[in-house]
Each structure stands twice: as C-alpha cells, then as structure tokens.
Specification:
The protein has helices at residues 3-24, 29-41, 47-54, 62-75, 86-105, 146-165; strands spanning 112-115, 126-129, 132-133, 179-184, 187-192, 198-202. By secondary structure, it is of the alpha+beta class. The protein folds into 2 domains: 3-75, no CATH class; 86-202, no CATH class. The strands form 2 sheets. Strands 1-2-3 form a 3-stranded antiparallel beta sheet, with helices on one face. A hairpin with a 2-residue loop joins strand 4 (179-184) and strand 5 (187-192). Helix 1 packs across helix 4 (62-75) and helix 5 crosses helix 6. The chain is elongated and about 65 Å long. The chain starts with a helix and ends in a 5-residue tail after the last strand. 26% of the residues are buried.
Length: 207
C-alpha cells in the first residue's frame, strides 16, 4: 500500500474514532491532534488544523476539543458509514418498506432488500430485486433524514425494477408518463412531468 493510501486510511480511522467519541462521549485530544497533524502533512490546512497546531495541547478544554473535532469532520466532509452509524441503515430499511407498498400496488411481485457489496469501496447500499441489483447506489448519509431516505430509496427501487422488467415504472395514470421521486414541502413524492409537472402521491401512497 502506498504511503498516500496509508495516510488516507489512518485519517479515515481517526475521523471514525472522533465521530464515535463525539456521539457517545469521551473525545480525547490525541485523536484530534493526530488527525490535524496528518491533514497538515498531507497538504490539507484548515482553520481547525491550524488552531490545533498553534495551541498547547494542555490548554485545550473539553469544549475546545468538541468544537475542533466537529470542525475537522465538517471541513473534511466526513460522512459516517453504516458500520459507524447503524441507524442510517435502519432508516433506509424502513424507507424500503414504504416504497415497497407502491411496488405491490402496481402488481409487481418479488423480493426487495437492501444489500452492500465487498467490491464497493464507497460502502453504498444497493436495492436488490429478485436476487439481482441495478440502478443507483445509496449513500449512507441518505439515512440521516426520513424523507431524504424515502426519495433516494424510491429512486433506487425505480432504477432497479425498470432494469429488470424492461418497463417504465411507476406510470402516471392520467398522462401515461413515468413518475420521478422528488419533494413537495419537504415530503418525498412521486411527480409526473406530463402536461405540466404535478404531484401524483407521496412515496408509499400510490393509488
């Protein structure tokens, strides 16, 4: 493994450790400082890394560590994995149960489930239908919002089913156009673009 890859692996582990400590309590200065040093050495300098390198470690209070730990995760665009935050997976699974109502309403039968794959280095969730998968992978962070999860899972289910049945699904009964998952007033809905965009139903409530 190249030194750059090793550094990225170490940084990922440190970010995960900091995230878990911020969530559960017990954040220590060692992890925060080690990540700041690694980022600076790799050419990533942020306000948080600079403050950590400039201030004596003994002067960092618990509040400082919390603030700086959160800043490091934000500045590096850290997103937790399913392993770090199982609740993200649980939210996606619940969303799949809701979307499955629409699948059954359209008379499509077959097993739907969420899976991950060893070959997927990004750690995405994939919708598997009838033992096969297609379509879009779902980022773990999608599980941080119930409505966001519904929209992303609906989109992934749609792509998967259409790839396997070779038909447009779902379809607007009025305009015979394919529907697309979107939002209306913060709620995940199925929308039709025929004869002007209009909402057909919330996700999970197709007639």
């Amino acid at each position: 493994m190249h030194s750059e890859e090793q550094a990225e692996q170490v940084e990922d582990e440190l970010m995960g450790r900091i995230y878990t400590a911020l969530r559960d309590g017990g954040l220590d200065a060692e992890s925060v400082l080690e990540l700041a040093f690694s980022l600076e050495e790799g050419g990533t300098s942020t306000p948080a890394t600079q403050e950590l390198l400039e201030r004596p470690a003994a002067h960092l209070t618990t509040a400082d560590l919390t603030r700086l730990g959160e800043s490091l995760l934000s500045e590096t665009n850290f997103e937790p994995t399913f392993a770090l935050e199982p609740r993200l997976w649980a939210t996606l699974e619940h969303a799949l149960e809701v979307v499955e109502r629409d699948v059954r309403t359209r008379g499509i039968n077959g097993t739907l489930r969420l899976v991950t794959y060893d070959w997927d280095s990004r750690g995405l969730a994939w919708v598997e239908f009838q033992g096969g998968y297609h379509g879009n992978g779902i980022e773990p962070i999608a599980g941080s919002s119930a409505q966001g999860a519904l929209a992303d899972v609906a989109d992934a289910v749609q792509e998967t089913i259409m790839e396997l049945i070779w038909k447009v699904w779902p379809v607007c009964a009025t305009h015979d156009h394919g529907l697309h998952a979107g939002y209306e007033h913060g709620t995940a809905v199925w929308r039709c673009t025929g004869d002007g965009t209009h909402t057909v139903a919330p996700v999970g409530e197709l007639p």
